[in-house]
Amino acid sequence: TMIETPYLLFLGDAPDMLAAKVAIGIRDWRPDHAVGQIRLPGCGADLGLTEMTLAEAKAAGAKTLVIGVANRGGMISAAWKEVLIQALEMGYDLASGLHNLLRDEGDLVAAAQTHGGTLHDVRVPTDGYPIANGENRTGKRCLAVGTDCSVGKMYTALAMDAEMQTRGMKSTFRATGQTGILITGHGVPLDAVIADFMAGSVEYLTPDNDDDHWDLIEGQGSLFHISYSGVTMALVHGGQADALILCHEPTRSHMRGLPGYSVPSLEELRDVALPLAQRANPACKIVGISVNTQHLSEDDAVKYLAETEERMGLPAVDPYRHG
């Protein structure tokens, strides 16, 4: 089910901006979906949006209170509960990507039932997905694959979608994780789909379309990441991509969360990802390289991109920094 827009973004008592990743994503990519923010005392995050009460946001048209922050210690605190229950009583829906589910909280379920609200736990798959059949689908698909986790695969796909829309092209960002789903209102929480149905859920997410329409599929994990390669494989086969974008963060000394493992080169990623993608779509090509240069100075970033382009023979850009 689609999450109703616009949103009021709940920042709770988030200690800092890092904890507010979901809310920041919505502000950056779907600003028209966010009427304002609501914070509890001691909140260290500030999106620079209009500070609103539940009543003010409701009057401004807000339909869903989105929990835009990670919670501490896997608990929904009493202070949070007060606001969430009040929101349900006022006719809001709630949406959350938290590990501990709204639907597991008896008082929230009761308030939702009494007042007709919907609880959206975007970490939980809502649809029954098929097993992948690998049949050829109409339309075009682009998938971002990374040398590691958290290298900018989601921002790359969102930036491409935004640019294609600006140019009047047909495109759809296809969310495959919690943040992407909350940003766009729909998608598949791939890491929570039962393994045998993962590739099928990606086929389901990217159905037949116009010949000139591009699905921009949000990447997950990395084929080189010991912990999270499974979800990536499902995207590579289920996505049946026509085009791959290689994503990289050049300053990492090791794989995220795996100190004993070095980060592969872009060449290694190319040589592993392309044959696997061509298994599902023999016409698949690598079309470009997206580099997350946030930890490089402007001069170093420009130099690194030029060197990478020269070395790989592919356009290399930082879509967030340079467009």
Describe the structure.
The chain has helices at 21-29, 54-59, 78-89, 106-115, 153-166, 178-184, 198-205, 229-238, 266-280, 298-312, and strands at residues 7-12, 34-39, 64-67, 93-96, 119-121, 140-146, 170-174, 213-217, 243-248, 285-291, 316-317. It has 323 residues and is of the alpha/beta class. α1 (21-29) packs parallel to α6 and α8 (229-238) crosses α9 (266-280). The longest helix has 15 residues, at 266-280. The radius of gyration is 20 Å and the shape is globular. The two termini are 32 Å apart.
Brief descriptors of the model:
323 residues, alpha/beta, 6-stranded parallel sheet, 5-stranded parallel sheet, 10 helices
The proportion of strand residues reads 15-25%
Total of DSSP H or I helical runs spanning 4+ residues? 10
String of helices and strands: EHEHEHEHEEHEHHEHEHEHE
The oligomeric state of the chains shown is: single chain
Structural class of the helices, strands and pairings? alpha/beta
Largest sheet: 6 strands, parallel
Report helical residue fraction: 25-40%
Across the major sheet, the strand order is 7-8-6-9-10-11
Net shape? globular
Q: Ends: how far apart?
A: 32 Å
Poorly predicted spans: none
The tally of strands reads: 11
Q: Mind telling me the C-alpha Rg?
A: 20 Å
Mean pLDDT: 95
